[in-house]
Amino acid sequence: MRHLVVVRVVSERKIEDFSSTRLFCFVQRTFINMSRPVPQDSNSFYHHYIELAAVEQATELPSFYGNKIADFFSSLPAAKGLYAYAPGKWTLQQVVQHLLDVERIFVYRLLWIVRGGLPSLPGFDENKFADLATATHRSMTDLIEEWIALRKSTDRFIANLKKEELEKEGLLDQSTITANALCFITYGHILHHIRIIRERYLTEGYSQ
To answer: Which CATH number does the domain housing residue 61 bear?
Structure first.
């Protein structure tokens, strides 16, 4: 049984979701059940990631995207691991290492909020992280295996969050963020990079 949701549409746009296209509405809601984040649930920097995650409830994210994400990364050719589409850009292995680092940070932030952590969490510089984690000493296969193992842990954690946990909010770099928004951001960040990998790493002849 679905709960009543009062919706005011702020904007509409088409969102590409793997092989399908759906209409996404960024909305303001009065709701009983936890639903999609609203703009004030996070800093505007993260809104793009939220928009990419095209489900209605945070706890639906693992079942909708978990296997799709695992299948995509399992299919990446190991021979492309050290490929970069332009000078100064990350190699594909660095992209996977970046995803590993960011997933851990996002899930720690989520855990901090749902368990009642009070002080503001700091931001981080993804480029400095990447500079210190070149991933050249590891194989593409090893990185993908770690990534899929980490993703299973994230999926299990988010799938079992309760409504009262998703409602909690905290401070991230002095901006308010909700646990619900962090769930969508976590998956949206992955979808963002899947799109980049498809367009720039797996497409022959791509040039910036």
So the answer is: 1.20.120.450
